[in-house]
Amino acid sequence: MSKAAKPKRTASPIPVRVRQAEERDKDRLVEIMDACWEATWMPFMPPAVPARYRNENLGRAFVENAWHTCRVAEAEDGKQGVVGFCFLLGNEMKTLQVLPDLQRRGIGLALLQDAEACIAKAGHDHVHVEADVFNARAAVFYRAMGYEETGRIDNDILGYKVATHVFRKDLGS
Question: Which of 10, 85, 97, 121 is the most buried (most CB within 10 A)?
Answer without folding.
Answer: 85
